[in-house]
Amino acid sequence: MIYDVVVIGAGPAGLAAGLYASRSRLKTLIVEKEKAGGQIAKTAEVANYPGSIENATGPTLIARMVEQVDEFGAERVIDTIKEVELEGNIKVIKGEKGEYQAKTVIIATGANPRPIGCPGEKELTGRGVSYCATCDAAFFEDMEVYVVGGGDTAVEEGMYLTKFARKVTIIHRRDELRAAKSIQEKAFNNDKIEFMWDTVVEEIKGDGIVESMVVRNVKTGEIKEIFADEEDGTFGIFPFIGFIPATDLFEGKVEMKDGYIVTDEEMRTNIPGVFAAGDVRVKSLRQVVTATADGAIAAVQAEKYINETFND
């Protein structure tokens, strides 16, 4: 079977693309390696998505998107893509479970949390180190947690963590936050939040669970080790220092810049019939609202490309 559109990724961009493509009666397949949702599925509150009210969360928003996609007849499959052949009129997408052919491909693979990159981080991920406050906050009920970062996400997730932890310390390498002023104000007014300025994490230690953390002041060079409270036995470390685009699969296949896929405003890559949408592409704002817009544009342009290429 040759699909009209294969969408790789089922975050907001991929789901929006699938929705618009299938609603246009295009034979559409969405391939996702895990469950649908991407980063937003791990977000506790979605307050800035237009029309998202009544305590909307990432998971509830995604559930509604998935329902719409299914309603319009898009096929969805869970598979890990290993290789892509994007040249020529028919694109070939090779997964662990099967091979998929398509007239057009929409890349919506998103981005993954950037690790601190210090010793002990990888070994203790899931054992005190977490990149998802929504997923793991409850594990640190009435304990201390440390958030690494100073942008919107770091501060917002830090505030969310105060619902569970008895104290949240935000560790930032600079002496002021990069988060929006409105978010900063809320954090500074939160009695449970403290700040550790001009500081980076050098090492995370523990025998099967986080027990201590070595930090360094970037201005004075002072190094100190922070130990878990004796009664707690551990503490949480939540890095929120940006993202790495999930584009390894497309290296050398499409034009990129700093690991992100380059598109025009119509979501077209440099390869005819191949589009990109959402966090995976070069853009100024990575939010749910821009991801869904990207997906919609990509699907409309995919239909236009199909009509021009295959129906003439």
From TrEMBL:
<keyword id="KW-0676">Redox-active center</keyword>
<dbReference type="GO" id="GO:0004791">
    <property type="term" value="F:thioredoxin-disulfide reductase (NADPH) activity"/>
</dbReference>
<keyword id="KW-0285">Flavoprotein</keyword>
<keyword id="KW-1015">Disulfide bond</keyword>
<comment type="subunit">
    <text>Homodimer.</text>
</comment>
<protein>
    <recommendedName>
        <fullName>Thioredoxin reductase</fullName>
        <ecNumber>1.8.1.9</ecNumber>
    </recommendedName>
</protein>
<keyword id="KW-0521">NADP</keyword>
<keyword id="KW-0560">Oxidoreductase</keyword>
<dbReference type="InterPro" id="IPR023753">
    <property type="entry name" value="FAD/NAD-binding_dom"/>
</dbReference>
<comment type="similarity">
    <text>Belongs to the class-II pyridine nucleotide-disulfide oxidoreductase family.</text>
</comment>
<dbReference type="GO" id="GO:0005737">
    <property type="term" value="C:cytoplasm"/>
</dbReference>
<keyword id="KW-0274">FAD</keyword>
<dbReference type="InterPro" id="IPR050097">
    <property type="entry name" value="Ferredoxin-NADP_redctase_2"/>
</dbReference>
<dbReference type="Pfam" id="PF07992">
    <property type="entry name" value="Pyr_redox_2"/>
</dbReference>
<feature type="domain" description="FAD/NAD(P)-binding">
    <location>
        <begin position="3"/>
        <end position="295"/>
    </location>
</feature>
<dbReference type="InterPro" id="IPR036188">
    <property type="entry name" value="FAD/NAD-bd_sf"/>
</dbReference>
<dbReference type="InterPro" id="IPR008255">
    <property type="entry name" value="Pyr_nucl-diS_OxRdtase_2_AS"/>
</dbReference>
<dbReference type="InterPro" id="IPR005982">
    <property type="entry name" value="Thioredox_Rdtase"/>
</dbReference>
<dbReference type="GO" id="GO:0019430">
    <property type="term" value="P:removal of superoxide radicals"/>
</dbReference>
